[in-house]
Amino acid sequence: LITLQQAVLYRSATLLGVYKEADLPLQAADMCNNGKMADILPSDDLQDIMTPINLNDSLIFAGAIEVELQRKLVVDLRDVARLAPFRQYETRSGRKIGVRMTAAGDYGWTSDREGYRYEPRQPDGDPWPEIPISLFEIWQQYTDCSRKPQCCLVNYYGEKTRMGLHQDNDEADFSLPVLSISLGDDALFRVGGRLRSDPSKSIWLKSGDVCLLTGQSRLAFHGIDKLRLGSSKLLPNKGRINVTMR
Ligand code: MD3
Ligand code: FE
Predict the structure, then answer these.
(1) Which of 57, 207, 220, 223 is a plausible cystine mate for 232, CB 3.0–4.6 Å?
(2) Which residue's alpha carbon is at the smallest distance from atom 12 of ligand 1?
């Protein structure tokens, strides 16, 4: 088993090539939190008002975003989806991925018969839209990271959509956080450890919940097992949107 630090070095070395056309690999630690990546934590005043649930070291701020702001986020995400429509990507094997996805920022996550990767452009060649300010403000509030996220991934889950247990390990630097925001119907979120075989814990993520992945939890296996369709009134056509900034 390699240490987190070794993993960071290993991935940086192997991933730089992936982004050779870009100015930077996905994220650069020296821009963030004065280089003290290991102790990114929510700011003190934030912890004063809300104690996060610690689920295998991922921090869940339950009900962190009030309904008014949730509605504003949905409006802003509609603007994103106008410029970058939700798409249903294929895997290398040609299987359709259930989650519909779009993105904002310098990079979006895409997948096709050549595999999955971050891309600076949409499949049709258009750039991804800007990350909405409303979302960036939440990133700033929860991460203490002075950098702006390079990718704001937007996932849409319908009735039977699930996301299998996986690791987010395509990024160049795991010492930077991932911030997730849940909108719409409740979803059963599962998070384990660094190994697929590590024991996992589950929690229902609800609309307005914020999840912060830093340190050890950044490389944890995680997934979405199921939805409680119609449990939220936020999205008129039901389903769930999950936004992750990284
Ligand atoms: C734990 N999204 O976008 S959000 C993903 O609900 C992703 O759409 C799920 O997994 C969703 O990659 C889960 C919570 C989350 C996001 C990123 C993580 C948990 C994470 C990265 C590392 C560890
Ligand atoms: Fe993930």
Answers:
(1) 207
(2) 168
- Decide: pTM greater than 0.85: no
Report residues whose beta carbon is within 6 angstroms of any ligand 1 atom: 58, 153, 155, 163, 168, 178, 180, 187, 191, 211, 213, 217-218, 220, 222, 224, 242, 244
pLDDT per residue as tens, the chain (246 positions): 444 444 433 333 333 222 223 334 454 444 444 333 334 445 555 544 578 999 988 999 999 999 999 999 999 999 999 999 999 999 999 999 999 999 999 999 999 999 999 999 999 999 999 999 999 999 999 998 888 999 999 999 999 999 999 999 999 889 899 999 999 999 999 999 999 999 999 999 999 999 999 988 999 999 999 999 999 999 999 999 999 999
The CB-side HSE value for 83 (13 A sphere, CA atoms) comes to 16
Measured by CA distance, the residue closest to atom 8 of ligand 1 is 242
All residues with CB under 5 Å from ion ligand 2: 168
Residue 157 belongs to what H/E stretch? strand 151-157
Name the residue at shortest CA distance from atom 5 of ligand 1: 244
Closest protein CA for atom 7 of ligand 1 = 223
